[in-house]
Structure formats: C-alpha cells, structure tokens
C-alpha cells in the first residue's frame, strides 16, 4: 500500500518508536522495586510493562500480592524520582530515526509526538535528541488529558495543528498506539523495532508494518 500525497503529517509515539528508552526505564523501576525489598526484572520484561503510563508500569512490575493502590503509588513515585536523574543514561534514538526525522522535516512533512510518558519527560527527551523546531506539537501525560488509547488528545493535537485526521499517519510500536490511531481515524503504521511483536500490532489495527525507519518514506511517497 502506498499513501497519497494528501498526507501532510506524521505523529509519532516516543518510547519504542523514536527512542530506545528500555534500559533506563528498567534500571529505574528495578531501583524502586529493590527499595521495597523486591527483586527486579530483566529489561526485556519491561517491554510488556510499558505503554500506559508510569502508574500502570509500577502496577505491572509489582508482584500481584503487592498491587494495592498505596504500594503502586509509592513505587511509581520512587521510580519517577530515580528516573528524573537517570533518564538519559542509556537512552538513544533508534538507528535511522535521526535521518528519517531530518528528511521529513526538510520535506515539509509536519510532525508531532504523543506519549503516555509524563509530559515533562516527553519534552525533555524530545529537546535532548532533536532540534527544537522539528516537531510542531509534543504531548505527554498530564492532568485532565486522557492517555492513549483514548484518541481525544490526538484529535486535539490535530485540531491545533489545523490538520484533518485523513491527512495524518500515526506511527507507534504497541497495540495501544494502533488502537489510538485507528480510533482517531488516522492511517496507522506499526514499527517492529520497539517493544511489542507483529501479532499484537496487526491484532490492534496496524494497517502497515515497517522494520526500519526509512521504510516510512515509501508510505509517504518519498522513497
């Protein structure tokens, strides 16, 4: 499938799509778990824990018998406090992402970022690894803003960017992302270098999969 020239913008997920954040997330949550006298997890396990915000991350990382709201909130706060200082220790853009973003920006394809990560961290990550004017709009989790897969924040972003959803490609690495984009009415592309497998991406609505960042150009008629 090839997209038409009517597509004017790409909205990206952050973790697992633009940036490989897994090691720093795992290290920070394991620190929080150890502080509760609990064992941590291998980094690969966190691929199934992330995607729905830091509270859900803490809930999934905790043993089932420790998932009371008070413990989850304490674990989340401990994670965020450590992550605040260590979020950039190992985090890097995935191979090929800087080149893709530069190509899109130079071709006047508008871009945005939508993440369930706390909003301040999302802005810091974007500012650290990309030029400030690269993305038209960047949004993370904030009070009063529904998290993905609720499509309302994505819809609001597009309204503020003066874009029709039919002009937008939504790119992510999890079923949460696929459901978000489909619910909003965007064309949805799943990436296979992130945190979830192809079966989940297709099951939750991916209309195309890409295995390397540059493959997105083909769907935008730019290859």
From TrEMBL:
One Pfam family named in its UniProt record: HAD_2
GO cellular component labels: cytosol
GO molecular function, one term: phosphoglycolate phosphatase activity
Protein EC: 3.1.3.18
Name under which the protein is recorded: phosphoglycolate phosphatase
Keyword Hydrolase: yes
InterPro entries for the chain: HAD-like_hydrolase_sf, HAD-like_sf, HAD-SF_hydro_IA, HAD_2, HAD_sf, PGP-like_dom2
Highest taxon in the source lineage: Bacteria
NCBIfam families recorded: HAD-SF-IA-v1
EC top class, as a word: hydrolase
Family, similarity comment: Belongs to the HAD-like hydrolase superfamily. CbbY/CbbZ/Gph/YieH family.
Record key words, sorted: Hydrolase
GO terms (BP aspect): DNA repair
Annotated TM spans: none
Metabolic or biological pathway: Organic acid metabolism; glycolate biosynthesis; glycolate from 2-phosphoglycolate: step 1/1
Catalytically driven reaction(s): 2-phosphoglycolate + H2O = glycolate + phosphate
Gene3D superfamilies associated with the record: HAD superfamily/HAD-like (3.40.50.1000), Putative phosphatase, domain 2 (1.10.150.240)
């Amino acid at each position: 499938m090839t997209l038409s020239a009517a597509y004017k913008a790409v909205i990206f997920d952050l973790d697992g799509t633009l940036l490989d954040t897994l090691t720093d997330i795992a290290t920070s949550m394991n620190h929080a778990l150890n502080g509760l006298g609990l064992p941590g997890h291998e980094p690969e396990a966190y691929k199934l824990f992330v995607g729905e915000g830091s509270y859900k991350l803490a809930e999934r990382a905790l043993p089932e018998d420790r998932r009371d709201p008070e413990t989850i909130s304490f674990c989340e706060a401990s994670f965020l406090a450590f992550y605040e200082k260590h979020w950039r220790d190992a985090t890097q853009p995935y191979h090929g992402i800087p080149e893709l973003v530069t190509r899109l920006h130079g071709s006047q394809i508008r871009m945005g970022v939508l993440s369930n990560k706390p909003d301040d961290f999302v802005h810091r990550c974007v500012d650290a690894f990309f030029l400030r004017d690269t993305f038209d709009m960047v949004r993370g989790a904030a009070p009063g803003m529904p998290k993905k897969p609720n499509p309302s924040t994505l819809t609001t972003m597009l309204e503020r960017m003066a874009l029709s959803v039919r002009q937008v490609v939504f790119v992510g690495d999890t079923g949460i992302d696929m459901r978000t984009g489909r619910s909003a009415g965007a064309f949805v592309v799943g990436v296979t270098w992130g945190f979830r497998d192809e079966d989940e991406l297709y099951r939750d609505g991916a209309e195309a999969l890409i295995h390397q960042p540059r493959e997105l150009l083909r769907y935008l008629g730019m290859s």
